[in-house]
Design brief:
The structure is a single chain. Helix content is 27%, strand content 32%. The protein is α/β, with parallel strands linked by helices. The longest helix has 14 residues. It is globular and about 45 Å long. The termini are far apart. The relative contact order is 0.15.
């Protein structure tokens, strides 16, 4: 079975198009088979985009698991002075996100494979509809990798379905040292707000 979190999707290409309409923007996005939610903007993504506060106006921002780009393009539209890194393991998704950003005239979106983000880049905001279905070990490894790159004042917002473990994920994040709250809940989805780990000064 093919998964949207494969690096090179085996599904034959079948281009499509979806529309994202929010109070502050209207985007028409190219999609394709082999990527996440190709037939419509996922409900969880929509909850995230309709509930989180605006991203910081400047600095580096991250869309973790960008797919064809609805989150990254929304971040870039709301924070035109910021650089938005749109990362995914799925190379078809990265290519679609790049085309969608160009079509929308959002030239500060940087769609790249997850391994191509420079090590010295840290993020003032992370927005993500994370790939819960990759399993807990891989999910925890992925979140650790990127949440550790929050700047000291950085904040991440994650959207997770309740029945896919939002409450247990909130506990795990807090246990790992990332203060985590649940500022919003709608239908079956929870928004988790995660702040940077507190570094204990050396004595």
């Amino acid at each position: 079975m093919a998964h949207y979190f494969e690096e090179s999707p085996q599904a034959a290409s079948r281009p499509g198009q979806v529309t994202l309409v929010l109070p502050d923007l209207h985007l028409r996005l190219e999609t394709d088979r082999g990527v996440f939610s190709p037939d419509r903007v996922d409900a969880g993504t929509r909850v995230l985009l309709e509930t989180v506060p605006p991203p910081p106006a400047e600095g580096d921002l991250l869309d973790l698991g960008c797919g064809y780009g609805p989150i990254a393009l929304t971040m870039a539209s709301r924070a035109p002075g910021a650089t938005v890194w749109a990362v995914d393991v799925n190379r078809r998704s990265v290519e679609l996100c790049e085309r969608n950003a160009k079509s929308a005239g959002l030239d500060k979106v940087r769609p790249v494979h997850v391994d191509d983000v420079p090590d010295d880049v840290h993020f003032r905001a992370i927005w993500s509809n994370p790939a819960i279905r990759i399993g807990k070990p891989a999910l925890h490894e992925m979140l650790t990798r990127w949440l550790d790159r929050l700047s000291p004042d950085g904040v991440a917002h994650l959207v997770v379905q309740k029945h896919l473990g939002s409450d247990s994920l909130q506990r795990w994040l807090s246990d790992q040292g990332w203060p985590t709250t649940r500022p919003a809940s709608r239908a079956a989805y929870r928004i988790l707000k995660v702040t940077a780990r507190k570094v204990t000064p050396a004595r």
